[in-house]
Amino acid sequence: MNDRVIPVLDTRRAAPIGTPRTPGPVAGDGSVADRRGRYMRDLRISITDRCNFRCTYCMPKTVFGRDYPFLPRDELLSFEEITRIARIFVAQGVSKIRLTGGEPLLRRNIEHLVEMLAAIPGLELTLTTNGSLLAKKARSLRDAGLQRVTVSLDALDDPTFRKMNDVDFPVAQVLEGIAAAEAAGLGPLKVNMVVKRGTNDHAILPMARHFRPAPGNGGHIVRFIEYMDVGSSNGWKLEEVIPSAEVVKLIDNEMPLQAVGPNYPGEVAERWRYLDGGGEIGVISSVTQAFCSSCTRVRLSTDGSLYTCLFATKGHDLRGLLRAGRSDIEIDAALGALWRERTDNYSEQRSEETAGLQKIEMSYIGG
Ligand code: SAM
Q: What is the pTM assigned to this prediction?
């Protein structure tokens, strides 16, 4: 185990399941709040730390080069381990699981994992992908039980897109993937665009125009994401962040917008709808408008460590518990104990100084 992972049972006293879980309020379904009154609802699982793109803001080639030591196969959680732990998370109150990575579609037989997770009752199952393999896999993923996908796409013009993915991947293939996902019924589909000043800000309006509903075309919701200081390898600078307010203003000037309320409590994207008809956009403002106070997310890394914040510097070793033969009851109790102690609010404390912390890379922790 590396020094950035904390063994769970060794450091915390876990109450057995079924005993009153204190402190913190308890929701109707029995789930327990953390120290800031937040409940665990969304689990993101990174199923591979590998990616076929080298997006400059996420897995820059300078760090993730040919010799980068990706995790060996036996370090990865198996499908059985992922499914077992997912069931325990659901018992803790999680109602939505997002498969991510790395690039999740690179994990061999992902359809089989989807099938296993889809069998868990009451679970919303989604996936985030760069779309490069989606044209091939959309139908089989849908057949396996995947409900929705989010596709990351940072520009529509080929030169900008190729430059950002840094592996010369053509945008046309991602657009094919989006069309295939829609045809397979993996909608409503969302498109995530990370906006970086001086790199792809010129692509904001074309993206909004392209994915807006038009006669004979239902469109897709684009979510403009503020460039974040995730991990410690993307050389993040505050001046490269375009505040969401600026994005909204730019689009509103051409296609008037109106703010809409969230679909559910804790929704990360702030919603804006087009005034003259259907369609909407979202903005995710982790930098300029921290949403820590309503954060219900938890992340499981490729090798089974638990992270209660995207900007964490340390995780908790769940795989150790699984492989040490601990029972579901023990793991559930450990998980509950961990969540109850959670206090993370990194985005509320962000500064140029905290941006320099040795944070866990997003490809490993799950974006
Ligand atoms: N490979 C998949 C993909 O491209 O969607 C899933 C993993 S990726 C890490 C998940 C999401 O994180 C993508 O939408 C990506 O754009 C976003 N992301 C990565 N680095 C980011 C950063 N520095 N700031 C904001 N979003 C980032």
A: 0.92
Q: In whole angstroms, what is the distance from residue 228 CA to residue 245 CA?
A: 16
Closest CA to 22 of 10, 41, 35, 9: 35
- Residues with Cβ within 8 Å of residue 38, at least 6 apart in sequence: 266, 293, 294, 295, 296, 342
Distance CA 135, CA 118 (A): 21
For residue 149, the one-letter residue type is V
Pairing of strands 148-152, 124-129: parallel
Establish whether residue 283 lines the binding site of ligand 1, counting it when its CB lies within 6 angstroms of any ligand atom.
Answer: no
What percentage of the chain's residues is helix, strand, coil (to nearest 5)? 35, 20, 50
Rounded CA-CA distance 231/365 in Å is 9
CA of 286 to the centre of ligand 1 (A): 13
Residue whose CA is at the smallest distance from ligand 1 atom 13? 152
Q: What is the mean pLDDT of each run of 10 residues along the chain (367 residues)?
A: 59 35 62 90 96 95 94 97 97 95 97 98 97 98 98 98 98 98 96 97 97 87 93 84 97 97 87 92 92 90 93 90 96 93 83 72 75
Nearest CA to ligand 1 atom 23: 228
Mutate to test the pocket of ligand 1, among 148, 154, 194, 301 (most ligand atoms within 8 A of CB): 194
